[in-house]
Amino acid sequence: MERRFLWLLLGMLAVLLVAAGVLLFGQRSFYRGVLYEPPQAAYDFQLPAASGGTTSLHEMRGKLVLLFFGYTSCPDVCPTTMAVLRQVTSDLGALADGVQVVFISVDPERDTPQRVQGYVSAFDPRFIGLSGSLDQLEAVWQAYGVYRQVDDASASLAGYLVAHSTRLYLIDPQGDLLLSYSYGTPPEDILSDLRRLLRKND
User: Fold this and answer.
1) Were both Cys, which of 20, 91, 161, 188 would link to 154 (CB 3.0–4.6 Å)?
2) Interatomic CA distance for residues 8 and 16, integer angstroms
3) Omega cis (within 30) before 38
4) Which CATH number among 3.40.50.300, 2.40.30.10, 3.40.30.10, 3.40.50.720 corresponds to the domain 31-201?
């Protein structure tokens, strides 16, 4: 009898542990992006803005930040990604007020803050475009693990190409890296995660 009671008690404990795990971690498994577990503090950049001042990550606290690294002369990946982000923020409707898209250049030789802001504004005036000196940007690239290499062999009258990493980062309202997305992630996946997080933060 005592042994049966012990097994019953152990079984109930196992059920409780599983239930607790679902409550604590179950919601996070529904995300469609790659989850940073545990979340880690995002590097708090401060870069020149088109206005003449600076823009920093900590100014965006309270919002979800979608951060992408690219350049305005990019022939394919960057315009495609920005078009996806335009679609995502448009589909969010009024919820888009809780999201900030940020584009940081990997081509400081050509991309002034004004040029980058003009580029992203063509997709959505609410998007923020930033650039800076090579030294300023290298610190940010390194912090986010961004690969960037100028392809000198591609130089022509039209300019040169810059090979760069294409991952999209999602930073939560507390300033932590929460999710990331590979190039080609369907807009519906990003939209699903944003809606889930925005409802969670209401």
Assistant:
1) 161
2) 12
3) yes
4) 3.40.30.10
State the 10-residue block means of pLDDT for the chain, 202 residues long: 46 42 50 92 96 96 98 96 98 96 97 98 98 97 96 76 97 97 97 93 66
Instruction: Pull the structure tokens for residue 11.
Output: 């079984």
Tell me the Ramachandran region of residue 159: left when phi exceeds 0, alpha when psi lies from -120 to 50, beta otherwise.
Answer: left
Q: pTM of the prediction? A: 0.84
Closest CA to 178 of 48, 46, 54, 27: 27
Q: Which residue has the tokens 């800076």?
A: 132
Domain residue ranges in the chain: 1-29, 31-201
Six-digit token string for 21: 């795990």
Q: What value does the CA radius of gyration of the chain take, rounded to a whole number of Å?
A: 21
Q: What is the 3-state secondary structure (H, E, C) of the chain?
A: CHHHHHHHHHHHHHHHHHHHHHHHHCHHHHCCCEEEEEEEECCCCEEECCCCCEEEHHHHCCCEEEEEEECCCCCCHHHHHHHHHHHHHHHHHHHHHHEEEEEEECCCCCCCHHHHHHHHHCCCCCCEEECCCHHHHHHHHHHCCCCEEEEEEEEECCEEEEEECCCEEEECCCCEEEEEECCCCCHHHHHHHHHHHHHHHC
Query: Which residues, listed in sequence order, are joined to residue 171 by a DSSP beta bridge?
Result: 65, 177
Tell me the one-letter amino acid at 111: D
